[in-house]
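Async update (no meeting this week)

Hi team, since we skipped the sync, here's where things stand on the single-chain job. The sequence we agreed to prioritize is pasted below, unchanged from the tracker. I ran it this morning and attached the output directly underneath so nobody has to dig for it. Comments welcome in thread, and please keep replies under the output.
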Amino acid sequence: MHVQKIQPVTNEELPYVQKARGYGIIEDIGGVGGLEQYYDDYQQGQVDPEFLDWLGGEAIDLNAVDIDELNDLPHHF
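Output:
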């Protein structure tokens, strides 16, 4: 690979999310099985209190997505 030209990128040129569905992956939750268990527990309103502490004290709705937050992420790198 040979770089021929480097151009500065403005915020307007960064890719952005137009539509999304679902929260996504929670790191270190225990793989697919852990994510499924969390989702089931959340739907029943029975998330383990120790798990809530691990999440920072607040349950995460896996059906929700914040497009503005997703689009803001590239601006912090």
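Quick observations from my side:
The chain is about 30% helix and 0% strand.
The mean pLDDT is 83.
Reply here if anything looks off.
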